[in-house]
């Protein structure tokens, strides 16, 4: 299937959106998005209905704060949703970079370059964007502003790069068979991950679908980690030890094109924190994990994984308003 029309629509949307001043953003949003647009974003934005409200609540304040905003894409691809909901979706991942000149969400400006990690899934229907999942790493921006919201993380804090192979911008059509291979290994990995009881050691379980030199580019508060051995030690093992009663995985969209693929859920799963996680005490209360995962396949296994987790939403469900607490402490 050819996805060129859908890709061109999203690229045109970005060209106009990124170059438009705040006052005209509503016009841009209504030009490219359906009137009943469903927009899903991380806390404190959550779900917004309609292009006018998305412009007013998200894009206008962001562009007023991160001036001279530019989009630095690392990955761009499209495909048909493999789940029952179907539809064609276009995915973009990278950073929104600008000069942090005015407060945003209570985060203090620095007057310096700042990077907001983002990943977007756009559903295209009838020549319009009808749904968007816009996930972004607010705690990463907070750290750049000197307002670290979390205790020291288990892995590394970085401004994360794109794929090692520098081939993530799939502007042209890709062989269908390559996308099928990528989707198959993602599905196998999800099956392994969802068990939490495969009968194998964690490292042997991971080795079934991951290359040994895999890189897990995790969110701020957890961090990035390299190789199966360090990933098991620095994230996957501690995460599994910290939670119980993990629900089944539930995605809104899952697709692949070429060597790249990914998914998102709203939420992806729930789990109960029963051990310390991210330096926080256990609450015993089930919490939602809203996640985007983007993957690069190398050979017959996964090589890189970029992850967006709404940790602010998760901790707010546990009774901790991390965003409000951090910004109030810093400004009091």
Would you kindly provide a brief summary of this structure?
This protein has 332 residues and is of the alpha+beta class. It is built from 9 helices and 15 strands.
Number of helices: 9
Give the strand order of the largest sheet, numbering strands 1, 2, ... along the chain.
2-1-6-5-4-3
Shape: globular
Q: β content, as a range? A: 25-35%
Q: Output the helix-strand order.
A: HHEEHEEEEHHHEEHEEEEEEEHH
Oligomer category: single chain
Q: Report helical residue fraction.
A: 25-40%
**Main sheet summary:** 6 strands, mixed
Low-confidence stretches: none
Distance between the termini: 56 Å
What is the top-level CATH class of the largest domain? Alpha Beta
What is the alpha-carbon Rg in Å? 19 Å
| Overall pLDDT confidence | 94
Sheet/helix structural class: alpha+beta
Please give the domain count.
2
């Amino acid at each position: 299937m050819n996805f060129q029309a859908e890709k061109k629509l999203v690229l045109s949307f970005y060209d106009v959106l990124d170059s438009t001043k705040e006052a005209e953003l509503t016009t841009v949003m209504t030009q490219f998005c359906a009137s009943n647009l469903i927009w899903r974003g991380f806390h404190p934005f959550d779900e917004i209905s309609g292009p006018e409200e998305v412009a007013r609540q998200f894009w206008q304040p962001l562009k007023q704060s991160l001036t001279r905003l530019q989009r630095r894409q690392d990955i761009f691809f499209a495909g048909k949703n493999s789940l029952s909901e179907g539809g064609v979706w276009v995915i973009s991942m990278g950073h929104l970079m600008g000069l942090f000149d005015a407060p945003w969400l209570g985060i203090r400006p620095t007057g310096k370059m700042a990077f907001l990690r983002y990943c977007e899934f756009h559903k295209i229907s009838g020549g319009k964007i009808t749904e968007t999942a816009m996930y972004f790493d607010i705690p990463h921006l907070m750290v750049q502003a000197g307002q670290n919201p979390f205790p020291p993380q288990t892995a590394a804090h970085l401004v994360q790069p794109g794929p090692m192979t520098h081939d993530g911008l799939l502007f042209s059509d890709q062989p269908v068979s390559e996308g099928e291979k990528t989707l198959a290994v993602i599905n196998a990995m999800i099956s392994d991950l969802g068990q939490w009881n495969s009968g194998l050691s964690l490292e042997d379980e991971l080795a079934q679908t991951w290359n040994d030199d895999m890189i897990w580019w995790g969110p701020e508060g957890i961090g990035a980690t390299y190789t199966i051995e360090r990933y098991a030690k620095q994230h996957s093992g501690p995460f599994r030890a910290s939670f119980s009663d993990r629900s089944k995985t539930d995605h809104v969209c899952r697709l692949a094109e070429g060597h790249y693929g990914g998914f998102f859920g709203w939420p992806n799963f729930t789990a109960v924190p029963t051990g310390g996680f991210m330096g926080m005490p256990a609450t015993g209360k089930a919490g939602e994990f809203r996640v985007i995962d983007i993957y690069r396949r190398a050979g017959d296994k996964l090589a890189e994984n970029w992850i967006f987790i709404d940790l602010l939403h998760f901790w707010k469900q546990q009774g901790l308003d991390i965003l409000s607490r951090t910004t109030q402490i810093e400004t009091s």
